[in-house]
From TrEMBL:
The lineage of its organism: Bacteria, Bacillati, Actinomycetota, Actinomycetes, Mycobacteriales. Belongs to the RNA methyltransferase RsmE family. Keywords: Cytoplasm, Methyltransferase, rRNA processing, S-adenosyl-L-methionine, Transferase. Specifically methylates the N3 position of the uracil ring of uridine 1498 (m3U1498) in 16S rRNA. Acts on the fully assembled 30S ribosomal subunit. PANTHER family: 16S RRNA (URACIL(1498)-N(3))-METHYLTRANSFERASE, RIBOSOMAL RNA SMALL SUBUNIT METHYLTRANSFERASE E. It comes from the Bacteria. It is found in: Cytoplasm. Residues 20-66 form the Ribosomal RNA small subunit methyltransferase E PUA-like domain. This is Ribosomal RNA small subunit methyltransferase E. One of its GO terms (biological process) is rRNA base methylation. CDD domains: RsmE-like (cd18084). SUPFAM superfamilies: alpha/beta knot, PUA domain-like. It comes from Rhodococcus triatomae.
Length: 253
């Protein structure tokens, strides 16, 4: 049976005893009822992983003796999702699904046709919820890395980010129902990084598509169906996993 993954930062060295307490310790010891003799995988959220055996258990706390350390490589190409803000009930779902599908990072985008409006304190709360959703989904899907979530971007900020990625030799794919190319038409296997741009429920404004393509983005069709904004990135990441070597890595055990 695969060992359960929990997050701890920093990770102790081999031979040391890690103390898993706080919310992670509560979940492990009280909710999951993990006990002495069971094995755990601890990750720092940035690719460093430690393997160990539980040598002590108390309420809301486990002591784990570390007997192995390793560093897991980053999947190539890295994929950052520029996600137009979905409606409230689907906002965190978009992050959860894309994290489970392998997204390396998220950029919340206040695009022109977003129903949701993140301003001031609401933007801070929204980004925090996305970061919490990414961390929970990373643990659920046994990932060693938690995707980074940027602060809210406006369209000029997204245009600048797209320009940077394209300038570094990356591919920026804008999921758009009016595109003439398909995602599978892009040469992705040897690119260092990708950016996926996902519009809101009302679709991308033509001015936004024009601004993005002007700095190197490519509008693409994902398939014949029109997907919800909350599921589009996850489906695209699945396709990218097949079209590249991103899914070649062994699972975290």
């Amino acid at each position: 049976m695969a060992a359960t993954v929990f997050f701890l930062d920093p990770l102790p060295e081999v031979g040391a005893v890690a103390v898993l307490d706080g919310p992670e310790g509560r979940h492990a010891a009280t909710v999951r009822r993990i006990g002495v003799g069971e094995r755990l995988v601890l990750a720092d959220g940035r690719g460093e992983v430690a393997d160990g055996e539980v040598v002590g258990a108390a309420k809301d706390r486990l002591d784990v003796r570390i007997d192995g350390r390793r560093s897991l490589p980053v999947a190539t190409p890295t994929v950052t999702v520029v996600q137009a803000l979905p409606k409230a009930e689907r906002s965190e779902l978009a992050v959860e699904l894309a994290t489970e599908a392998g997204a390396d990072g998220f950029v919340p985008w206040q695009s022109a046709r977003c129903v949701a409006r993140w301003e001031g304190p609401k933007a801070v709360k929204g980004v925090t919820r996305w970061r919490n959703a990414a961390a929970a989904a990373a643990k659920q899907s046994r990932r060693a890395r938690v995707p980074e979530v940027a602060d809210v971007h406006r369209t000029p900020d997204v245009v600048a980010a797209v320009r940077d990625v394209a300038g570094r030799g990356g591919v920026v794919a804008v999921l758009h129902e009016g595109a003439s190319q398909h995602l599978a038409d892009l040469a992705l296997r040897d690119v260092p990084e990708m950016m996926l741009v996902v519009g809101p429920e009302g679709g991308l404004a033509e001015e936004e598509v024009a601004a993005l393509t002007a700095v190197g983005a490519v509008p693409v069709l994902l398939g014949p169906q029109v997907l919800r904004t909350s599921t589009a990135a996850a489906v695209a990441l699945g396709a990218i996993g097949v079209l590249t070597d991103r899914w070649a890595a062994a699972p975290l055990t």
